[in-house]
Amino acid sequence: MLEEIEFVKPEDIEARSMELIEKELDGRTWPEPEALVIKRCIHTSADFDYADQLYFSPGAVSRALKLLKDGAHIITDTKMAAAGINKKRLAALGGQVHCFMDDPEVAREAKERGITRSAVCMERGSQIPGTPIFAIGNAPTALIRLYELLREGKVHPGLIIGVPVGFVNVVESKELIIRTDAACIVARGRKGGSNIAAAICNALIYQCK
Amino acid sequence: MLEEIEFVKPEDIEARSMELIEKELDGRTWPEPEALVIKRCIHTSADFDYADQLYFSPGAVSRALKLLKDGAHIITDTKMAAAGINKKRLAALGGQVHCFMDDPEVAREAKERGITRSAVCMERGSQIPGTPIFAIGNAPTALIRLYELLREGKVHPGLIIGVPVGFVNVVESKELIIRTDAACIVARGRKGGSNIAAAICNALIYQCK
Questions:
Q1: Contact A167/B47, CB-based, under 8 Å?
Q2: Of B104, B176, B108, which Cα lies nearest the Cα of B142?
């Protein structure tokens, strides 16, 4: 049975995967910076739906690359995305990852106000100085709170990565963000997740040479 | 635009999601312990493919629940899965999560032997006493190394959660594990990931009241 396994050197596995993804995309093309984001989402999920569902606001990727090269921080609503983002490479650019989900004060405040912890985390994130990137992989309520803060002029994100996953208000919250003026990368529809949020962050970070 | 958002209390979001998933499964049924695993995978991915692709070896779930109630540890090949597993609830049962991916010794040994860090992690995991659960969400090479260790009688897993994602040896490595005598839960095909590994662990942990 082991003979069905093809030996591929560890350092070659990713390149081989990307070749196979490219082949299956069957000639579909995007500008290189967007293509690298789309292919990394497919690589992390084996789900080709991302080729159709990823929305990029005009200039979003080039703006994100410039910000990351200038040391932009990343704020995320999920510990899994925080674990998956390449923090060493981000730190080399001068950035850090922030996730406030484990802060007991956030939990207390969310309970008191009857809102989600993710929504409170966005308020905390809005206080990070500079022009940070918000990477939302879990909670539509985080995107909805970001939308409200944007309207109130209380948050100035450099980019919103809007890829929560699920069934309650997920589709709607993503469309809300697309309709704002904020630069965004959004996985339309129900799909997304922490893995997709981390994959998009990493696809951007790896383009900052 | 905000008027399209339906207000759902934070504590009700998961139950509402599960209702919607159930509705869309349109009468398909499984024994309750397996159904809870399948539905949590769909909840975490919005991907109904898991209803078709999840394979349970006979008695795998009931065995896993017994082990977890007895304090079984969980070993995973991915930091994202480690971040996503409910460690507080696991600790209440007496278990811990182990992930060796960040150990510099693992990186050194993997490089020296020309194998993946994930494969070395499985060897480390095989030294954990008791009957642990292996949750593989990233690397097919981890599953392949587990298969070899099983054949050599060098590892005694209580359950293997085999849900790596990707394009190189992923499908084959999962079929290898299914053909062993080990209790397993496997996402057949290319799909899976850290989020699915964590979701399956949590679906099991939450059944241990």
A1: no
A2: B176
**Which residue in A189, A191, A164, A15 sits closest to A80, CA to CA?**
A164
Indicate the pairing of strand A97-98 with strand A74-76. parallel
If you search the block for the tokens 């898991």, which residue do you land on? B50
A15 touches B: beta carbon within 8 Å:
no
Q: Which tens digits make up the pLDDT trace of B87-134?
A: 999 999 999 999 999 999 999 999 999 999 999 999 999 999 899 999
Q: Is the dihedral of CA B70, B79, B171, B156 positive or negative?
A: negative
B102 touches chain A (CB under 8 A): no
Show which residues of B are catalytic.
Answer: 43
**Which pair of structure tokens corresponds to residue B207?**
């059944």
Q: Report the candidate in B167, B166, B147 with the shortest Cα–Cα distance to residue B157.
A: B147
Nearest to A195 among B9, B170, B195 (CB): B195
* Contact B113/A at CB under 8 A: no
pLDDT tens, position by position, B19-52: 999 999 999 999 999 999 999 999 999 999 999 9
Which of B139, B149, B78, B180 shows the shortest CA–CA distance to A80?
B78
Distance CA A92, CA A203 (A): 15
pTM for this entry: 0.96
ipTM for this prediction: 0.94
> Residue ranges of the alpha helices (H) in chain A?
13-25, 32-45, 50-53, 60-69, 79-84, 87-93, 104-113, 117-125, 140-151, 170-178, 194-205
Sheet holding B97-98, edge to edge: B54-56, B184-187, B159-162, B133-136, B74-76, B97-98
